[in-house]
Amino acid sequence: MFSKILIANRGEIACRVIKTAQRMGIKTVAVYSDADRDALHVEMADEAVHIGAAPAAQSYLLIDKIIDACKATGAQAVHPGYGFLSEREAFAQALKDNGIVFIGPNPGAIAAMGDKIESKKAAAAAKVSTVPGFLGIIESPEHAVTIADEIGYPVMIKASAGGGGKGMRIAHSSSEVAEGFARAKSEAASSFGDDRVFVEKFIVDPRHIEIQVLGDKHGNVIYLGERECSIQRRNQKVLEEAPSPLLDEATRRKMGEQAVALAKAVNYDSAGTVEFVAGQDKSFYFLEMNTRLQVEHPVTEMITGIDLVEQMIRVAYGEKLAISQADVKLDGWAVESRVYAEDPTRNFLPSTGRLVTYRPPSEGPDGEAVVRNDTGVFEGGEISIYYDPMIAKLVTHAPTREAAIKAQARALDAFAIDGIRHNIPFVAAVMQHPRWIAGNLSTGFIAEEFPEGFSLPAPQGETAQRMAAIAIACDHRMNQRKRHVSAQMEGWRKVSFDRLRIVQLGAERFEGEVTEQGGAIDIAFAGRSVSVVSEWVPGEPVWHGTLDGVKVAAQVRPILNGVALGHAGAYANAHVYTQREAELAALMPEKVAADTGKFLLCPMPGLVKAISVAVGQEVKAGEPLAMVEAMKMENVLRAEKDVTIAKILAKEGDSLAVDAVIMEFA
């Protein structure tokens, strides 16, 4: 076995590979850019080598730098993770030419499958069902429009070397094709160093289902079940699960055998994923093959018990697969939430900055479920503008889908992050969504269920009453602390508090009478009494406890006269008053937010790539105003209504903070 390997990546996946290597007794080498000097993967590895400046094109994408680091440290093999150089044939070949083992498929398989155009040709030759499209090189926007007109709308414009939603656009008209072609080519060039794109038919109401395959260098290939990855935004996955609630055993076997046949046709010899677009009728078409470890691989590991990173290392070393197809058994259900540094209330725009608070839920058993958290960050660390905004992958595994979803919801409630915007409120809300719970999924789920964008849901019904009880419990604990303030004046009455508490929870009002019973407090609401037990202390960002014996977690942040709460996908400020305080609070005027309608504000920290208008220009609603790049994504900012440009306060090349004013309207 290898004695030392280098991980040519960063963040979560670098840490993930290091953990398995350590368990196998293999020493590890990390590489890092200027921005990652203090990163977690650098701390975890046995050695670390600096390879360049913060932009990926000046560090993680430099093949020569990776090879030099291998030679300097004596690393015998390289694991590429995902993204960056993981699907670059030239990288695998360069390692081979320098006597370094690539922990991934052979260069020929990467050439055949890693290139999205070539993979479709190979699939068609292997008689795999494929989506109608044009697989040749597209030279111009006009050429793309002609092709799209022939195929029929809607169409998907996709980078040939793409992945992770980069360099991908859906177009419903010829004008959208022309603009999408330009954006896809630009993103593809900056993310992958390859600006080729292709066009294919976009299947309406599709599901995204993928098969995990695993091959060795001795001709053996097996499949490890499927993953459902239909919950996406901007063509990037947000939630994944395994198995899929759509498939039956016969369809699973058919997809798996087709994926294996395709892998064998190109002599595939590592972990890889064959992606399919599936109809609601269980029909399916080959989409692409990713010749690397997928982001969402943990859900497969949880239901099969197979460590995919370990298998990749063993295969790269030349070992035969010790697992046959008959050995693969699917056990239970796994759900994964990708926790991103992005603001779901601002159309999921990236957020950067310091992680002032980072407290993930405890890993390990949670009743009948198991919690796993794969991450590459730490409290006090920075989320950089230069890389993918992923913070962590939160995974839960349980005997049934229902139990895995409930465990995921509890874990999200217990996941505390402050200092940046993040998408936990969104994925927590999805966990409560009836359509998600029913498994009635498609890649249009987010657009269909949140057509006006996402806003923090207000608590209702049972959720609202639980939050009211938690608010009263927090207030009671804070009042207990006040009763024990030292150096109170002798002869003066001690601090005391009324038993009646009035909770204003958003638009709802609850009245509860508090009675303390040993280690618990009983809260008598109208028509119901709730017993609350918790060891929470003021200052903790997560409240853990039981309500009538049921385990509950909630996000807690102090506010004036109460706490801000997040629980079960609902969020609200809970003001806790005595009866007299409630009477006075009702007389206080509400603070009105400032009107920012006359300004175009930068929605996230980023680099101004283009200003599309001039002072005095009249702009119609929907027309582009500017383009801001952040975390490898180009975001076009459009006019929300008809406006006239009065002032332009930013220029191309400027680095802007969130809410910086780009331009002013007349």
UniProtKB/TrEMBL annotation:
It is an enzyme of class 6 (ligase). Its cofactor is biotin. InterPro entries: ATP-grasp, BC-like_N, Biotin_BS, Biotin_carboxylase_complex, Biotin_carboxylation_dom, Biotin_COase_C, Biotin_lipoyl, CPAse_ATP-bd. Pathway: Metabolic intermediate metabolism; propanoyl-CoA degradation; succinyl-CoA from propanoyl-CoA: step 1/3. Keywords: ATP-binding, Biotin, Ligase, Lipid degradation, Lipid metabolism, Magnesium, Manganese, Metal-binding, Nucleotide-binding. Its EC number is 6.4.1.3. Residues 120-317 form the ATP-grasp domain. Residues 590-666 form the Lipoyl-binding domain. Residues 1-451 form the Biotin carboxylation domain. The keyword Nucleotide-binding applies. It catalyses: propanoyl-CoA + hydrogencarbonate + ATP = (S)-methylmalonyl-CoA + ADP + phosphate + H(+). The keyword ATP-binding applies. This is propionyl-CoA carboxylase.
